[in-house]
Amino acid sequence: MKMINREKEKDFLEKKIYSNKSELIILYGRRRVGKTFLLEKTFEEKAVFFTADLSNTSYLINRFSREIISKLPNFPGNIQVNQWDDFFGLLKMYLLQNRDKIIIFDEFQYIPFQDSSFMSIFQRWWDTEFSKMNVNFILCGSYSGMIEKIALEHNSPLYGRRTGQYKILPMDFFDSSKFLPNFNIEDKIYIYSITDGIPLYLKEFSEFSNFEEALFNRVFSPGEFLVEEGKFLTMEEFKKDPSNYFSIMRVIADGKTTPVEISNFSGVENRKISTYLSKLLDVELIKKEFPVSLKKPKRKPLYYINDEYIKFYFKYIFPNIDIIYRGHGEQLVKSILLEINNYTSFTFEKIARQYIERVESPQKIGKWWNKDIEIDIAAIKENKVIVGECKWTNKKVDNRVLQKLQLKTQKMIEEWNFEPDEIIYYLFSKSGFTNILEAENIKLIDLESLSELI
Ligand SMILES: Nc1ncnc2c1ncn2[C@@H]1O[C@H](COP(=O)(O)OP(=O)(O)OP(=O)(O)O)[C@@H](O)[C@H]1O
């Protein structure tokens, strides 16, 4: 199967691995984002994978050792290995004969989770042997607070030893669209609002050409993978006490953004809500946003679901799971399609932000708000301010929208106490424009202009 996109990530890995010294790279990212696939496609037969799971330590050591022994000619195949030291001894023997191989510990986070001694043993082998052998190790893990703790915090034994780290991100809308060649731009946006830029989810849609049919067959039919994926991802992180986390995710998906609202609607006590929110932030199921500002933000943050699939899951799949399993997905799809434009308007803002990121490369980008007004996109690039307004409606956008944006921008700049050299206004519209002219500092972006970046 062909790899779509990921050129930057591939370049990073190749540059590191073909250096003339030992490398210890931490590669991490959300589940299903395509880490293993990237490693397989980049290194092909050079990659030697040791994929961990939740099995106990002696089973893992034995399984990993058998894999190495099978690659060592003339080595007795029937010995039992029970210690990490013995496994690393075998690995050294293998690497002395195969220095071009790249050793990958996949789903790495499970190993120290099962056995806390692993890290110090690995550290000793790295310091005394592997770091001097001009060999390459990649530790690959699903993003969770855990990978950060294991590998990227200052007090972790790996922190000072790692020679590189890369977080694999979901693809943006424009790259995601390459998975959906049979769909028009509008449907691509609807699909992105369900899959985010996760290759495995995008692939579920790629063989279809009709959005409604794909939605019914792949998301609202019993037994389909995407029906349970949101539960799986949440349960994986919160095996204990899942019900409060599910309630909180559900109300955030429904558009509640402040801790008080989230507590009121989820029924989780106000005094406990910040602990729950911070755990959800740790595992990146949610994110918090401050209004874009030049200095430290004064306002409190708002909370949002971090990705489009999880949001869609908690808004439309989780509350309707019984209906899906009773086989009434088709009616459900029809009723969801009646209101999907409201839901997709937020996705359209995310895509518009990605457009500005690609075209303008700003230093800061986000949303801006005060207690009365809100600007969908506000960005800063040196002394230039870039603002954007997004309309996902069936009406054409006219000059009034621009005037309103100009007034709001004035207020924002006054609050920032800043005199920009230039202000660029972006208007994004699903249905195009009327009675408004494009200019050097007024950019009108319709769906056709968006397609130009695909
Ligand atoms: N760049 C890509 N182009 C095409 N298909 C891709 C790409 N990346 C991933 N995929 C598809 O998505 C599937 C899942 O990706 P992969 O297993 O690499 O994710 P992962 O990040 O390792 O997930 P996990 O953490 O859950 O193990 C792959 O088997 C492949 O089919």
UniProtKB/TrEMBL annotation:
Ranges of residues in domain ATPase: 4-205
Domain of life assignment: Bacteria
Residue span, DUF234 domain: 313-398
Pfam families, A to Z: ATPase_2 (PF01637), DUF234 (PF03008)
One term of GO molecular function: ATP binding
Entry-linked InterPro entries: ATPase_dom, DUF234, P-loop_NTPase, Restrct_endonuc-II-like, WH_DNA-bd_sf
Descriptive protein name: Putative ATPase (AAA+ superfamily)
UniProt organism field: Marinitoga piezophila (strain DSM 14283 / JCM 11233 / KA3)
